[in-house]
Amino acid sequence: MLFRSESVPAPRLSRLATGLAIFAIGLLVAGAILVGWDVMMRWLLRKPQSWVSDIASLTYPIALACCIPAALESGHMIAIKFLGEALGPRTTQVLDTLGSLLMSVLMVLIAWKVSERAISDWSAGYKTVNIGLPLAPTWIVVSLMLAVSALVQLGLSWRDLKQLISSSRSAHG
Description:
With 173 residues, this protein is mostly helical. It is built from five helices and no strands. α2 runs parallel beside α5 (136-172).
């Protein structure tokens, strides 16, 4: 979970996920301040700060990717509970574990494809429109954040699988 009680120490990945989410909030606040600056400069001096959109295009994907590990850990991803509840607790646990494993596969695939994009952007030398900042570093950071997300989800899947096996042994033994 994202916020734990003080009596239970947070695992290393949990602290990392929380730290990344806090960093993301900082990036978003900084972006909002820059947008405000751009609006004020356009309004007061008729001098748009076109570089602000370049900075936003580089920082917003990073901020969003930094939030994914915390979202995964907190369990606030989309879940369809009514089917599992109608079929009973054991089926719910099996479906939750299956969903967790599928989410792990999906996170690994997304991290892989974004890293391919980062390599492609690096090779092509793509840059932002206004001030010509390279795009590849942003997508490298995003792919690293998605790799962290995949590791978090794999850890959650491992936990769910262990709980499923343990409850299965308890029910049969």
